[in-house]
Amino acid sequence: MIEKINKYLEETKEFAATTIDEIESFRIKYMGKKGFINDLFSEFKNVPRENKKLVGQKLNELKISIQEKINALKENLEDKTESRSEIDLSLPGDSLKLGSRHPISIVRNEIIDIFKRLGFTVSEGPEIEDDWHVFSALNFPEEHPARDMQDTFFIETNPDILLRTHTSSVQVRVMENSNPPIRTISPGRVFRNEAISARAHCIFHQVEGLYIDENVSFADLKQTLLYFAKEMFGEKTEIRLRPSYFPFTEPSAEMDVACNICGGKGCNVCKYTGWLEILGCGMVDPNVLESSGIDSNKYTGFAFGMGIERITMLKYGVKDLRLYFENDVRFLNQFKSAL
Ligand code: DAH
Fold it and tell me: How many CB atoms lie within 10 A of CB 50?
């Protein structure tokens, strides 16, 4: 009987199967009602007492190894069929989801691109500034109400240090550090102590422009801005300049473009005027040139400053400024650009 058991052990070890049917017939052959194991247990009754222990152990060993063999074969087969059905190697891979540029960055890049075509360079300055570069050098007299035009965030312990309220501070830095001819734009973030609403925010973005050379005139300013408006909003875009006041330019003007949300008919965005103000501009005040060391008898220049949020609003019809800062991907995903 031991010999028979050894033979079955050997067969079990050698057995291999590739289908579930093969495994099943193996199981029936050995473990079925009329299988070898049951036959052996019947035979076992006749084994002499002194051999029972040894044969019994061998018999159990055989039973266990058959069961283990069946389990192992089944597992193996399951693994294979699973991997075949779950992964279709011919399917394309999951594509990586790319984000999109923020609308403010898209429009900023577009503004830079337009002015680069006119020969303007890009310059930058610090967001944490001093009084000189934000106010004094720009002809804001001390204690003059002009300083109240812009609600400023000051550092409590040192009121000379503040968050810049406009990017005009960069034109001062450029004039201090270079000689005419100067043709530069300065994009950047600015800060004002304002209550946040659909139309105002305490953080926003501006682009400052500065052009200084001999014989620069208001006509140059107007033509530059008209070119910009047409490139930005389309060939048919109309602009208008209204007289205004800024301490650092004389004469000063504000520029409007026809409201493209209502097509000039009047809507709540343009306050029913058909026009939207997009920038301030003017001829650089001789005092400003002189404070930065530029000879105002030899040179003249123009400057302008525009809000990027406002231009984005006009271009894309976004009416609420707060959307730009909420980082809601449902909003951000709508802006795609090559720039
Ligand atoms: N700095 C002004 C502002 O923040 C905008 C501005 C107006 C800039 C006229 C200029 C300018 O350079 O000439 O409202």
Answer: 7
Mutation test of ligand 1: which of 163, 168, 191, 308 has the most ligand atoms closer than 8 Å to its C-beta? 168
- Is there a contact between 149 and 120 (Cβ–Cβ < 8 Å)? no
How far apart are the C-alpha atoms of 82 and 80, rounded to whole Å? 5
Q: Does the Cβ of 211 fall within 6 Å of ligand 1?
A: no
Gap from CA of 277 to ligand 1 centroid (Å): 12
Domain 103-338, architecture per CATH: 2-Layer Sandwich (3.30)
Instruction: Record the pTM.
Output: 0.72
Helix (H) or strand (E) holding 304: strand 300-307
pLDDT tens across 224-276, in order? Answer: 999 999 999 999 899 999 999 999 999 999 999 988 778 778 887 788 999 98
Residue ranges covered by each domain of the chain: 2-86, 103-338
Neighbour-count burial for 78-113, b at 16+ CB within 10 Å, e otherwise: eeeeeeeeeeeeeeeeeeeeeeebbbbbbbbebbbe
